[in-house]
Structures are given as C-alpha cells and as structure tokens.
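Problem 12. The chain below contains 371 residues. Write out its predicted structure in token notation.
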Amino acid sequence: MMHTLFHLPTKIVFGAGCSTDLARHIKPKRLLVVASGAMRRLGVVDRLVGALGADELAVFAEVEPNPSFATVDRAARLARELHPDHVLGIGGGSPLDVAKVVACLAENGGSVAEYAAGKRAFGDTRPVLVAIPTTAGTGSEVSPFAALTDAQRHGKSLLKAERLRPDLALVDSKLTRTTPPAVTAATGLDALCHAMEAFWSLNAQPLTDLCALRAIESIFKNLPQAWADGQDDAARDMMAEASLMAGIAFGQTMTNVCHALSYALTTRHGLEHGFACAITLPAVVRRLGAAVPERFAPLLRTLDASSPDELADRLTGLLEKLNAPTHLAKLGVDTAAAEAVCDVALAAPNLRLAPGKLKREDLLQILLENN
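Solution.
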C-alpha cells in the first residue's frame, strides 16, 4: 500500500464575521501588518488591528499584484527593524504571500532572491504568522507556497517551505463582499484550477480528493452568482469555503499544468493570474481526460458530465459567463509567443505532477487550441 502524508498545522477559524474576533486569538506586543494599499484605504487594516492593542505596530501596505522580490525585501527590512512577535497578512494572495515570506525573513539576513535560489534556507524560528484572506481564490492562508515575481528574470518564482504555512487563518466571507466582479471571477477561477489540478495531480490522495471535489462542485454552483451579485451572502460564504478547500488540497499536492503555463502568460503578456490559469483549463481537461480517463471518472460523476469533452465545453461556458478571456490570440499570443510560454512551463518543477507525461508538443497544442 502506498503511504501518503497530509500535513496541515494551520489553525483555521471559519465563518462570516469571524475576523472581528481576532483579538481572542492573538495578543501581539510587536505587530507587523502586511497588506495592499486598497485594504488600508478601505479601512480594513485599521478595523482589524484596532482592537489588538499592540505596544508597537508597523504597517507595510505597499504590496502590488504579482509582488516583486524588491517589495518583499523592503518589507523584510521593516520586519528586521521591528522584530515583531506577530506578522499579520491581510488581503488577497499577493499580500498573504509577502507576509508569509517576510515572517520567515524577519530574523534572518539576505535577500529573498538568495532564498529563492536555494542559497539560504529559512530558519526554524519566526514570529507567529496570521493570515486573513479578503478574496475567495488563492488558498494562501493554508498553503506552504509563495509566488513572487523576479523582475530580473522576468518570471515567477515559487517558494515552498513548511515554514510558510500560517499558524492561524481567519476565513471571513464578509471581507469578500466588496470584491469587484472581475476580481471575484479571477480569484474564483484560480480556486477552481487549484482544486482541479489537485484532483488529477500525481500527488493526489483520498483526503485531497475529498477537498478538491467539494471545492469544484461548489465553485461551479456558486461562482456565477457571487460574480453577478457580490452581496449574495450564501454564494460568498460557499466561495470562501470552496477557496479554503481548494487551498487545503493543493497545499498538499501542488498545482501542475495550468499553473505552469500561466507564469509566462502573466509576466510576459499581462494576464491576471486567475485568468492566466483558467484560459487553458478546457484544453487541459480535453487532453488529460483522454490520457487518463480512469482518473477523470469521479470528477465527471461529481459534475454530472458524460465526458471530458462535455466538461471542457462547460468550462468554456463558465469562462464566457464570467467575461473571462478564452482566446490567447486576442492577447497577442501567437505561435512564437506560445513557444516561449512552453519554455517557461517546461522549466517549472510542478509541471511533472500532471498525469499523462506532457511534452512540449502537448503544451503547444493546449495553448493553440483556443487561439
């Protein structure tokens, strides 16, 4: 019998409004908050940290989408000055990823590039790390990964370490109510890719299958409504749960082909991360469904689809309903550009976790199928 490992050290507090109880869970003396500028302007940061009563407080609210190494290094310098006992990340995947890395760098020297290159290793100690997501999509609050942008290489760098898993996650769907429709679509589709890639991953196991299938089914049912009406409490609640479940699943398995293909689509063609992952999802389902049909059988049953082709068509319909991009040619990705996207994907370590032993010609066909 094959042995599997399921490791989830993060304490999860889940439910609408749970973030208002933050002070019940932590008592920081020196607190560093990492957030986006939007979270500070909207008053979310002040509202969440106001009741904590920290003796010393520093806020780094300069996190951009697809955060750069330079941003992380600036935040790490602030952390080293403060020596926080708690680091709190508030926002979407970008602020949470920065907070996770900064917490690990708080008591260590060097630049993030050195850690990404394997020249340095994260230490065994770090401040208490707390994550509060404000979007339903990334699952960063429970994963051991952080995706950063290396401006010098014009590419994505995926850091993986168990120390990157937060100690505490508060998943409050109320914080997603004001998410704009386009962001709701992109983050929701990112969660869908997390769950589907986790399900067919070579690292999949029974526990991750349970989380992944529940997330997939829920996203199909609830994402269109959450996108159409951001104030629909039930849809927002279910999307928060689905994102969390998808994060738990891919936090054990890693992502694979859709994410590997997305990196260059984001860094070189400016496609938002969730859309960059989802735009290839229908073509990936067609190819993998034909290559490993036995693996797709539970997925097809869950979604009441008769074949991988039918599921791919439904995915295309979902993308169209959400006004998500569906044709790479419209984004300027011609055959030559697709070849460059393949180069980046083939170098990504997570690609090998996709079933079917995908080669360059397979990736190229996936990219060009929807041109």
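Discussion. The chain has 16 helices and eight strands. Students who got a different answer should revisit the alignment rule from Section 12.3.
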